[in-house]
UniProtKB/TrEMBL annotation:
<protein>
    <submittedName>
        <fullName>Transcriptional regulator, XRE family</fullName>
    </submittedName>
</protein>
<dbReference type="Pfam" id="PF01381">
    <property type="entry name" value="HTH_3"/>
</dbReference>
<feature type="compositionally biased region" description="Low complexity">
    <location>
        <begin position="51"/>
        <end position="66"/>
    </location>
</feature>
<dbReference type="InterPro" id="IPR010982">
    <property type="entry name" value="Lambda_DNA-bd_dom_sf"/>
</dbReference>
<feature type="domain" description="HTH cro/C1-type">
    <location>
        <begin position="108"/>
        <end position="162"/>
    </location>
</feature>
<dbReference type="GO" id="GO:0003677">
    <property type="term" value="F:DNA binding"/>
</dbReference>
<dbReference type="InterPro" id="IPR013096">
    <property type="entry name" value="Cupin_2"/>
</dbReference>
<keyword id="KW-0238">DNA-binding</keyword>
<dbReference type="Pfam" id="PF07883">
    <property type="entry name" value="Cupin_2"/>
</dbReference>
<dbReference type="InterPro" id="IPR050807">
    <property type="entry name" value="TransReg_Diox_bact_type"/>
</dbReference>
<dbReference type="InterPro" id="IPR014710">
    <property type="entry name" value="RmlC-like_jellyroll"/>
</dbReference>
<dbReference type="GO" id="GO:0005829">
    <property type="term" value="C:cytosol"/>
</dbReference>
<dbReference type="InterPro" id="IPR001387">
    <property type="entry name" value="Cro/C1-type_HTH"/>
</dbReference>
<feature type="region of interest" description="Disordered">
    <location>
        <begin position="1"/>
        <end position="82"/>
    </location>
</feature>
<dbReference type="InterPro" id="IPR011051">
    <property type="entry name" value="RmlC_Cupin_sf"/>
</dbReference>
<dbReference type="GO" id="GO:0003700">
    <property type="term" value="F:DNA-binding transcription factor activity"/>
</dbReference>
Length: 284
């Protein structure tokens, strides 16, 4: 008789007894019955199939006792406040380059202050939480591209203005060969911009040159526009409306430029002058 067949004669286990009691009862029945295994030798306890012992234990799927794998959590700077959009708290993967975080932070703080915006106002304009903006400015969070685009659009700036590290935060180096130059149709008047054209501004700075015995006429600028000009070489006549002013080397003039005006070189040499223009409203 096979081992499996031998177990078919054992009495059923009492459900009120534990597993240990049931196994002990099985052992006692077998010892008293005098049944033998193959070869006539008494069966030893260690020959009992191990798989039969836990038969009385209710069967449960293995997976029910294995805890599920915890979901991978997104790296975030802190719990979002109530009502906060989840995307506003996304930050770069911890393995990403964190060197950009302090650069973005310095640029964001500088640009926000330049525009007279509080963190609260920028938060409302961009949809990024005030807490996240504060952490970005402190360099404690490396924001995702999505968040940077939200901030850039709210500031009306190119994306590069937030991540640029050329010359350090708040510094722009403009080499002479790359300067933006404007020339009159006859080539006798030239204007070289000494400021970056790619940022909103209220002040502009120019180097102007005017050939001998030439003039340049300018239309009226928006109300509130001021021009502050200094002559560094030559003799200039400024015609502002019905008024005329003569300036020589070293002379300067400040006037309201919301009326037509004329720069006129009345000398025999070329004029070099520098002009600062300020606007009542932001341009660019």
């Amino acid at each position: 008789m096979s081992n499996d067949a031998a177990y078919s004669y054992l009495p059923p286990m009492d459900p009120h007894l534990g597993v240990g009691h049931s196994l002990a009862g099985m052992k006692s029945v077998r010892e008293n019955s005098g049944r033998k295994g193959r070869g006539g030798a008494p069966r030893r306890d260690e020959d009992e199939p191990a798989a039969k012992a836990p038969a009385a234990v209710p069967t449960q799927p293995v997976t029910s006792v294995v805890p599920p794998e915890p979901a991978e959590e997104a790296v975030a700077s802190g719990p979002p406040p109530e009502g906060e959009a989840a995307w506003a708290y996304e930050v770069a993967h911890p393995d990403a380059d964190q060197d950009l975080a302090p650069v973005v932070g310095k640029n964001l703080r500088r640009l926000r202050i330049q525009r007279g915006l509080s963190l609260e106002r920028l938060s409302k304009a961009s949809g990024v939480s005030r807490a996240m903006l504060g952490q970005i400015e402190l360099g404690q969070s490396a924001p995702t591209i999505n968040v940077l685009w939200k901030i850039a659009r709210a500031l009306d700036l190119p994306f590069s203005a937030l991540i640029s590290n050329s010359g350090g935060a708040g510094t722009r180096l403009m080499r002479a060969p790359q300067a933006k130059r404007l020339t009159s149709h006859d080539g006798r008047f030239t204007s070289r911009a000494l400021f970056p054209f790619d940022e909103p501004r209220r002040v502009e700075f120019y180097e102007l040159s005017l050939k001998a015995h030439s003039e340049e006429r300018a239309d009226a600028h928006p109300p509130g526009t001021m021009e502050n000009l200094i002559v560094t070489r030559g003799t200039l006549e400024m015609e502002i409306g019905a008024d005329h002013h003569l300036l020589t080397t070293g002379d300067a003039i400040l006037f309201e430029a919301d009326k037509p005006h004329v720069y006129r070189n009345v000398g025999a040499e070329d004029i070099t002058m520098y002009l600062v223009m300020s606007y009542a409203e932001e341009v660019g």
